[in-house]
Design goal:
This protein has 360 residues and is an alpha/beta fold. It has helices at residues 7-19, 31-39, 59-68, 72-96, 119-129, 133-143, 155-160, 162-183, 199-220, 235-239, 241-244, 255-263, 271-279, 296-310, 326-334, 347-359, and strands at residues 23-27, 45-49, 101-105, 188-193, 227-232, 250-253, 315-318, 339-342. The protein contains 16 helices and eight strands. Bound molecules: phosphoenolpyruvate and magnesium ion (MG). Keywords: ATP-binding, Kinase, Magnesium, Metal-binding, Nucleotide-binding, Pyruvate, Transferase.
């Protein structure tokens, strides 16, 4: 337990835990962040963003090799290099989070973040892939996007290159089997598909995950319980939640993107004008900090209602930045979500806010 949580403050937090209904999870993808989150009382990982892992150490060269490959064979060659390290990532996380659920989101990068820019970077990828620099540059130019945040990211990447999600799912299940074997306690993986807008996308991606699970369980001679669910971060997904819940076993509201796509405001550029919008009372508060309860909130309510109509036990959480904001947590309580997920250092605030929301 973190020293800050000892003494009177610890007692207060215990009282809060006795009152709150909402579970509190954390957004974390390194073992250290997971440890911190757990020490602050997180009851699971609500969002593990795997794209951050792809920049670790020397991996970025293999990642670039995969993205720039001309065909599936080329991508698989790069993915084979990434699998052992990705498996190691999940082993560490499952070990720290023993006994608690871990929502692992499959790759969701704006593609341009992975493209090489400097001559030396192209040279490294060329030597790893055994192809010429000019060919790689041509391919990088083909992959250029004018609006990467609305482009080839999230499950669109999994739809076009299913082998990427297959490798990640394999890494998750191999890691889960390894940890179960070593510790005697099975991890609780929840595999999350990002940027879904249609039930069909989720169906295709769930099939990839289930197939990888089946293959790994057959190889290892053991089965691990897991869920497959989706982010709800596009207005279309919120509206079609009834259909999406036929496939997905849980929803996690990605309110960063849901705010961006509902308001039509770029999350990366909003700072230029949001101050004026708040000053003039157009928005009561920065909608990327505190949920736009009337707009984005209504979509969350619609999705919760339609999702539960199809699947009464669909698990509902929130993992956008709003998951650590007390006013937004009050909304989540009213909307009947099951959990909020916040950055590790906001977990205590979320525990208190969840208790206050329950009392209200
Ligand atoms: C979100 O969109 O709210 C979310 C949690 O995902 P990311 O911030 O990684 O896009
Ligand atoms: Mg998102």
């Amino acid at each position: 337990v973190q020293p800050e949580l000892a003494g009177d403050f610890g007692t207060l937090m215990e009282w809060a835990d006795g009152v709150r209904r909402l579970k509190v999870r954390a957004n974390a993808e390194t073992p250290l962040d997971c440890r911190t989150a757990r020490d602050f009382g997180a009851e699971g990982i609500g969002l593990c963003r795997t794209e951050h892992m792809f920049f670790e150490g020397s991996r970025i060269t293999a990642v670039r090799q995969m993205i720039l490959a001309e065909d599936e064979k080329g991508r698989r060659a790069a993915l084979d290099k990434l699998l052992p390290e990705q498996r190691g990532d999940f082993v560490e996380i499952f070990e720290v989070m023993a006994g608690l659920p871990c929502t692992i989101r499959l790759l969701d990068p704006p593609l341009h973040e992975f493209l090489p820019h400097q001559e030396a970077e192209f040279a490294e990828v060329a030597s790893a892939a055994g192809v010429g620099v000019e060919q790689l540059k041509r391919r990088a130019a083909e992959l250029h996007e004018f609006n990467p945040m609305l482009g080839h990211r999230g499950c669109r990447l999994g739809v076009t290159y299913p082998e990427i999600y297959e490798m990640q799912a394999r890494a998750i299940f191999e890691a889960a089997c390894e940890v179960a074997e070593k510790s005697g306690e099975a991890p609780i993986p929840e595999v999350m598909i990002p940027l879904v807008g249609t039930a069909k996308e989720l169906e295709l991606m769930k099939a990839v995950v289930d197939k990888a699970a089946e293959a790994v369980f057959a190889e290892k001679g053991r089965t691990i319980e897991y869920l497959v669910g989706t982010m709800i971060e596009l207005p279309r997904a919120a509206l079609k939640a009834g259909e999406i819940a036929e496939v997905g076993e849980f929803f996690s509201f990605g309110t960063n993107d849901l705010t961006q796509t509902t308001l039509g405001v770029s999350r990366d550029d909003a700072a230029r004008f949001l101050g004026a919008y708040v000053d003039k009372g157009i928005y009561a508060r920065d909608p990327f900090v505190s949920l736009d309860v009337e707009g984005v909130g209504e979509l969350i309510e619609i999705a919760a209602e339609r999702g539960r109509k199809t699947r009464p036990d669909v698990k509902l959480g929130i993992c956008g930045e709003h998951g650590g904001d007390p006013a937004s947590i009050t909304f989540c309580e009213k909307a009947g979500l099951d959990y909020v997920s916040a950055s590790p250092y906001r977990v205590p605030i979320a525990r208190l806010a969840a208790a206050q929301a329950a009392l209200k």
